[in-house]
Amino acid sequence: MFMYEMPTRLYFGKNCIAQSGAALQQLGKKALLVTGRHSAKINGSQQALADTLDRLGISWIVFDEVENNPSIATVRKAAALGREQQVDFVIGIGGGSPMDAAKVIALLCTNEMDDAVLFTGPYSKPLPIVTVPTTSGTGSEVTKVGVLTNPHAGTKQSVNTPLIFPVLSFADPSFTMSVSETVTVDTAVDALSHAVEGYMSRKSTPVSDVWAEEALRFLGMHLTELRGELSYAVREDLMYGSTLAGIVIAQTGTTLVHGMGYQLTYYKGLAHGRANGLLLPRYMELMEASMPDKAEKVWEILGLSGWRDLASFIKDIMPDSVDLTASEIDSYVALTMPARAVQNTSYDITPEVVASLYRHLKTK
Questions:
Q1: pLDDT computed for residue 321 by the predictor
Q2: Which stretches in the chain have pLDDT values below 70?
Q3: Where is the Alcohol dehydrogenase iron-type/glycerol dehydrogenase GldA domain (predicted)?
């Protein structure tokens, strides 16, 4: 037996907001737009939403203070604004941080809870959520997870509930045309990691595997083209692959790479996709042992010969190294082991396995 749930209505393609934005009318008369400080204004996504909302007679306000790896304090501040202004729905515009924040903000607009309950529930129904991705990486536009920085736990943690699946998502690849080379690389590798981890997850299903293989095809054909100017056609393929990978992890969850990567972001300041990328090759070494047939399929789709070939590719586009002390590794292992991502991993994960993967980072 397996279950498949994807309640988000997705509109994909250039100018999809202008063409299909009338769907927003079903959600109410006032919206809270949740963004970062700059990119949504630069890439045209905020203006596209504003024009459509104005045309539909829907009023709106903006909260543009979402930082990378959003904090509990930030989402609480935005939710207070949403309640004060009596908004009917929340629109997250941006990369993973604004979209994840928007999901939790919508939840906090209808739920009174302390910081502990925020990550565990139970929850009542949030305000309706709309997502507009402006990077091709997180897949948050179609998932039921909002990741926040949690200082109480000393790491990043997820608010995870089907209640925060977006109702609508508008994925317009043209909003990614101005994304920098660094962010393009980081987000593409994040999407690759989602597809691979979802494919290798203990919770993978026949349906999720179809989407994972399709995501790998569309991402894999462009892995050597992530630098310099990218055409709209390439940007479109990357966003399509990223969204499919998001659909995958909405079913399967992520695995060890994400569970370990959160520590590298929280304590070492590595971008999320970059942290995943540095961990991915050695993780795939484990997968070659535990799921050889699926690992071989990954290499076939990506045109790689194995985990060492992947390691060479990652080293070329992400020449980072992370030299961790023994005490740091011990701390990160302790934070990783209780994570749901460890339970989703097909390999038998022990503290020594995790420690070994962290130690390998300095050889990059």
A1: 85
A2: 363-364
A3: 7-173
The closest of 32, 108, 23, 20 to 72, measured between CA atoms, is 108
CATH of domain 9-175: 3.40.50.1970
- Phi, psi for 92 (deg, rounded to 5): -95, 120
Bridge partners, residue 35, by sequence: none
Q: Residues 91, 21: contact at Cβ < 8 Å?
A: no
Q: Which helix (H) or strand (E) holds 157?
A: strand 155-160
Global confidence as pTM: 0.96
List the one residue out of 280, 302, 299, 295 whose CA is nearest residue 186: 280
Domain 180-363 has CATH 1.10.260.40: no
| Per-residue confidence (pLDDT) for residue 346, from 0 to 100 | 94
CB neighbour burial string for 47-77, b if at least 16 within 10 angstroms, e if fewer: ebbeebbeeeebebebbbebeebbebebbee
Q: pLDDT tens across 280-315, in order? A: 999 999 999 999 999 999 999 999 999 999 999 999
The C-alpha atoms of residue 101 and residue 308 are separated, in whole angstroms, by 36
Q: What is the DSSP string of 330-344?
A: HHHHHHHTTSHHHHH
As given in the structure block, the two tokens for residue 150 are 């949690």
Give the domain ranges of the chain.
Answer: 9-175, 180-363
pLDDT of residue 142: 98
For residue range 96-126, what is the model confidence (pLDDT) as tens digits?
999 999 999 999 999 999 999 999 999 999 9
The predicted structure's pLDDT at residue 364: 41
Encoded tokens for 133: 């991705």
Q: Tell me how far apart the alpha carbons of residues 160 and 360 are, in angstroms, rounded to a whole number.
A: 30
Report how far residue 347's alpha carbon sits from residue 198's, in angstroms, rounded to the nearest whole number. 14
